[in-house]
Amino acid sequence: MADYIFTSESVAEGHPDKIADQISDAVLDAVFTDDPYGRVACETYVTTGLALVGGEITTTTYVDIPDLVRGVIKEIGYNNSSLGFDYKTCAVITSIDRQSTDISQGVDTGGAGDQGIMFGFAVKETSEYMPLPISLAHKLVKKLAESRKNGTMPFLRPDGKSQVSVKYEKGKPVSVEAVVIAAQHDEKVDMETLRREIKEKIIKLVIPGHFLNDNTKYHINQTGRFVI
């Protein structure tokens, strides 16, 4: 097997894509808690100061979606308008209909309301049987959130993403070639401090030392300021 470099990325819990995912997941969980036979086709769109939840939901229970949305945003850490998003003041718009009767007649008889094609496979590189690059990328953004919430790095803010490139030789991971982290931050922290703290307290604590070497490249907030 030829040598190659494999790259994966992960977004932080405060990234707009991930906020939307968490809200949609929360709606689904809330419906299934009381109505395991509920049908939920729910999508979420977020932008500065706004969350829009729409789709088709058929259920026997009631979900206070605006309250649920604000709870998710609060848990993520958007609790001040200076962050560009505040669970207390953001607008929440809902547009929910019941599932189309044309679709439900097929589901009622055992069919599916939608379909998808997925593929993948388990690997032995990590304890969760996921490829090492995506495993490390997920752990990096998780550590960013943890360090922000426990006060270790209070200058961090909810948004961010990570990217990890791993070198493989004969099909096995041997080293991390590059790490990219973009972390939202307080406007008062200087870039030198931010980059040093993330490298020492995030990257080097998450990525096992034997994968890092003198050739590993670190790109931390490479474009500079990331306040909003």
CATH class annotation of the largest domain: Alpha Beta
Beta strand count: 9
Average predicted local confidence, pLDDT: 92
How many domains? The number is 2
- Order of strands across the main sheet: 1-7-8-9
Task: Describe this structure as you would to a colleague.
By secondary structure, the protein is of the alpha/beta class. It has two domains: 4-12 and 122-220, GMP Synthetase, Chain A, domain 3; 16-108, 2-Layer Sandwich (GMP Synthetase, Chain A, domain 3), CATH 3.30.300.10. The chain has five helices and nine strands. The strands form three sheets. Strands 1-7-8-9 form a four-stranded mixed beta sheet. The chain has a three-stranded mixed beta sheet with strand order 2-3-6. A two-stranded antiparallel ribbon has the order 4-5. Helix 1 (16-34) crosses helix 2. It is flat. The mean pLDDT is 92.
Keywords:
four-stranded mixed sheet, 9 strands, three-stranded mixed sheet, 2 domains, flat, 228 residues
State the gist of this model.
The protein is α/β, with parallel strands linked by helices.
What is the fold's blueprint, element by element?
Elements: E1 4-11, H1 16-34, E2 39-47, E3 50-58, H2 65-76, E4 79-80, E5 85-86, E6 91-97, H3 101-107, H4 132-149, E7 156-169, E8 172-185, H5 191-206, E9 217-220
Parallel strand pairs: 3-6, 8-9
Antiparallel strand pairs: 1-7, 2-3, 4-5, 7-8
